[in-house]
Amino acid sequence: MGTSAMHATVWDETGGRGVPAVLVHNIFTWGSDEVYGFAAQRSLADRYRLLLVDRRGYGRSPGTGRGDFDTDADDLVELLARQGGGAHVVGHGNGGLVAMLAAGRRPDLVRSLTLIQPAAFSAAAGHPAVEAMLHRVRNSAGVPESVTPEQYLRASTEGLGMIMPDSTPQRLRAVATSMRERPVWEAAVPLEPLRAAPWPTLVICGTWQDAPEPYRTYAGEPLIACAEAVADALGAPLLRVAGYYPHTQQPATVNAALRGLWG
Questions:
Q1: Which of 56, 86, 129, 184 has a 20 to 30 A CA-CA distance from 138?
Q2: How many domains, the chain?
Q3: How are beta strands 7-11 and 48-54 bridged, if at all?
């Protein structure tokens, strides 16, 4: 299903009776992706109507060129408004930022908010790990036009000690969109409306103790700082799980936490 801008894969074993839960993905991926997406959350469809969105330029959603978190948030608000009665919202990484923006704009459409390592850097402004990351990216030359999506994917995975996923056309399209996405550190995270919202919020973060260097330094430490800052600012519990991709590496723990929050 989808609007003209955002496709959503629907997993529903309730016969349409389940409360909707909308899941918003990070970079390099799409909603139902088995590597970085929310495939490991499919078991939750026994009680909930899961909508795994593809942000613009990802998965089966239209759009090419530069992704934008503000546009994605507008798309998400539109999708939430069509659910009737609100939905649980889950966002990972850049998708966590999109979820926060959408929930801040229309808190009446949200039943609960779960943020998995949200890229909410303005919330952790001043933290040494975040400032070091911002210094690196702001003083870099950016991605040269000559770099292909496959080269960028390799540098972003094998170059940081990770295993590179298969460079399928769908993966490379997601990488191409990620390469030109509007920088998430430009976003002002709406903490006040989220703090005042009547529904519960949960923040989930990996421990990153087993992540290869420099992946932990470049990505892990800033994301840990964001998760801690957001949880503190919103008065939300912070669930720490082993690894660095909580919902894919520790799905049993994350899914149990989601059931507890949604129930």
A1: 56
A2: 1
A3: antiparallel
Nearest to 219 by CA among 94, 139, 129: 129
Structural domain boundaries enclosing 35: 7-262
Environment class of 188 (CB within 10 Å of its CB; exposed 0-12, middle 13-18, buried 19+): exposed
CATH number where 93 lies: 3.40.50.1820
Q: Using one digit for the tens of pLDDT, what is the confidence trace for 214-239?
A: 899 999 999 999 999 999 999 999 99
Q: What ranges make up the beta strands (E) of the chain? A: 7-11, 19-24, 48-54, 87-92, 110-116, 201-206, 238-241
CA dihedral 67, 117, 30, 114 (to 10 degrees): -110
Residue 256 maps to a domain: yes
pLDDT digits (tens, 9 = 90+) for 105-129: 999 999 999 999 999 999 999 999 9
